[in-house]
Amino acid sequence: MRRIRNELHKLGYEIGRRLVKRYMQEMDIVAFYPGPNLSKRAKQAKTYPYLLRNLAIRKPNQVWSIDISYIGTPTGFVYITAIIDWYSRFIVGYSISNTLQAESVTRVVKEAIRNHGKPEIINSDQGVQFTSREYIELIKSYESIKISMDGKGRATDNIAIERFFRSYKWERLYLMYPETVSEVKTITREYIQHYNYDRGHQSYKYKTPAEIYYATAEKAA
Length: 221
Prior knowledge:
With 221 residues, the chain is α/β, with parallel strands linked by helices. Helix content is 41%, strand content 16%. It has 2 domains: 1-31, no CATH class; 63-220, Ribonuclease H-like superfamily/Ribonuclease H (Nucleotidyltransferase, domain 5, 2-Layer Sandwich), CATH 3.30.420.10. Helix 3 packs parallel to helix 4 and helix 5 packs across helix 6. Residues 56-217 form the Integrase catalytic domain. One of its GO terms (biological process) is DNA integration. GO terms for molecular function: nucleic acid binding.
């Protein structure tokens, strides 16, 4: 957006950022921001094997996937940490932050477990937040939870959460052009509510993640 405005200024058009934004919306022009590599692990960090290969996932809370994605705004990057239940595609927890500290990740895990119980397995990539001492010690403190990590360079190993991020960005975020952390939080809260409770999935005959998650969990109980 800033580059377009600057190029217009060079051509003699005095135009502000908000007007550029409006014209971009009207013309369906989307701004993409280069972001950091969030899957890069720390040197010498311990990793764990990938436990989902050939695993039959048949119930909620059997496997959760956690990941971080970045959101570009005019004031800098904002980061969303989300946890998805692999079986139902229900988002069991998320947070929005303008930092990449491990505390943001551990807080989401604690809240998700407090609200929905413990998963049998929690899968992540090998990013520095997920190989950090704080994260590993937290997961191990729950004793029964197994840690699983994607193979190096294998984004498809965590495909459930990757698909959610793609839907979140293309169906809502890229259409709204948030400019502040507060706007990102509002958009994210509204989208996850819609995703969990209103957006049907074709693979489940258009039932919502909430219908699958809670109905199956009640049967198991």
